[in-house]
């Protein structure tokens, strides 16, 4: 998609659900489907190529639910445009910024009945097999909705992709926890897959890792509820985790406590090192460049006199994605040096103190 210039902002499209030229045209095809016409509550993923779908849902006065990115703060946000919203305001509501500014959270106790699920994809087959980024969030979101009773086996699932993303996917790659799709919308086609493979009826805890549990608070809440209800909620690596983290000098950890590094060890942080900043660079210029590449951080530590900055993200995966997206970034005449940062737990040989950030392979700042 990059080499053929099919990709669209934000670029590069690696490590994300890729946006593409013609995504709005592909979204318009949903109006030809009866499942959209009769739907009242729709769930649409927050990915950029589905922006046109979110706008159509709002213009059609449907209740729009958008998952929280990476499920960091909950499961859904319900988009609530202001009264009398113009088409321009609705367009803003359909963007990622609008999702943040015009939404209210929807928790596990909310009585939601989703009539239509719309997901992004990296690749999809005409059989209905779907491949995402490989992190499992779309599959997990659907499974959690099933556990809540928000979806059923009959709830239609639609994906929006470019024609080049419709490929043959071997059956052997599809597992029982994978989400399949009923309809594929491209800029030129509407494909009805006729897929009859059963979808997950709830979270398959044996497929969930302790590391994922540590990242997603709402998943921990759902697991606690299902455990109280008497369900088997044993995780994929729970017993192994308990054995590996046990030390003769420490008390046995609770299951799924995150692995703790040894004293003095570099531990991966959620931060990204940016070096070789021009001497006259302003923090606003860097923030603008980050926004243009779609990797705005939660927080930015500016160290202009040292010609560097640190970008702080919600988790290491987001930090790694930022590193990939920022390669080759320029400010002024300078090509910035970008690397994943690490955080020293104790004083190190270079004189750093506990908690001080460094690049993984520290380049010269000047």
TrEMBL record:
InterPro entries: FTHF_cligase (IPR002698), FTHF_cligase-like_sf (IPR024185), MTHFSD_RRM (IPR034359), NagB/RpiA_transferase-like (IPR037171), Nucleotide-bd_a/b_plait_sf (IPR012677), RBD_domain_sf (IPR035979), RRM_dom (IPR000504)
Ranges of compositional bias, category Basic and acidic residues: 227-247
Domain of life, source organism: Eukaryota
Name under which the protein is recorded: Methenyltetrahydrofolate synthase domain-containing protein
PANTHER family documented for this protein: 5-FORMYLTETRAHYDROFOLATE CYCLO-LIGASE-RELATED, METHENYLTETRAHYDROFOLATE SYNTHASE DOMAIN-CONTAINING PROTEIN
Ranges in coiled-coil conformation: none
Originating species: Phyllostomus discolor
A single Gene Ontology CC term: cytoplasm
Family annotation (Gene3D superfamilies): 3.30.70.330, NagB/RpiA/CoA transferase-like
Pfam family, one: RRM_1
Region listing for Disordered, in residue ranges: 227-265, 347-366
Molecular function in Gene Ontology: RNA binding
Keywords (A to Z) from UniProt: RNA-binding
Domain RRM, chain residue ranges per copy: 270-343
């Amino acid at each position: 998609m990059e080499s053929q210039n099919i990709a669209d902002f934000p670029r590069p499209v690696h490590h994300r659900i890729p946006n593409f030229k013609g995504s709005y045209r592909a979204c318009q095809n949903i109006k030809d489907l009866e499942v959209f016409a009769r739907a009242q509550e729709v769930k649409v993923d927050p990915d950029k190529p589905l922006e046109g779908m979110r706008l159509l849902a709002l213009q059609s006065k449907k209740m729009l639910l958008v998952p929280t990115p990476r499920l960091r703060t909950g499961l859904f946000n319900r988009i609530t445009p202001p009264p009398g919203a113009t088409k321009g305001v609705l367009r803003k509501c359909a963007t990622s910024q609008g999702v943040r500014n015009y939404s209210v959270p929807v928790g596990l106790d909310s009585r939601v009945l989703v009539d239509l699920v719309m997901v992004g994809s990296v690749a999809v087959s005409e059989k209905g097999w779907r491949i995402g980024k490989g992190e499992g969030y779309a599959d997990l979101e659907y499974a959690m909705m099933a556990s809540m009773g928000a979806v059923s086996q009959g709830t239609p699932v639609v994906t929006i992709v470019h024609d080049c993303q419709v490929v043959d996917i071997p059956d052997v790659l599809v597992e029982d926890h994978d989400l399949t799709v009923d309809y594929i919308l491209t800029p030129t086609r509407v494909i009805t897959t006729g897929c009859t493979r059963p979808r997950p009826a709830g979270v398959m805890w044996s497929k969930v890792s302790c590391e994922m549990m540590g990242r997603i608070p709402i998943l921990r809440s759902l697991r606690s509820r299902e455990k109280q209800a008497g369900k088997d909620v044993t995780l994929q690596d729970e017993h192994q985790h308990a054995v590996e983290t046990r030390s003769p000098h420490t008390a046995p950890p609770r299951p799924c406590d995150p692995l703790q590094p040894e004293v003095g060890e570099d531990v991966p942080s959620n931060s990204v090192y940016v070096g070789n900043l021009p001497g006259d660079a302003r923090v606003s210029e860097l923030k603008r460049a980050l926004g243009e590449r779609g990797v705005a951080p939660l927080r930015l530590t500016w160290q202009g006199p040292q010609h560097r900055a640190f970008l702080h993200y919600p988790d290491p995966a987001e930090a790694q994605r930022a590193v990939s997206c920022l390669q080759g970034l320029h400010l002024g005449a300078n090509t910035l040096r970008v690397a994943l940062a690490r955080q020293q737990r104790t004083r190190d040989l270079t004189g750093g103190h506990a908690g001080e950030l460094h690049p993984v392979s520290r380049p010269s700042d000047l």
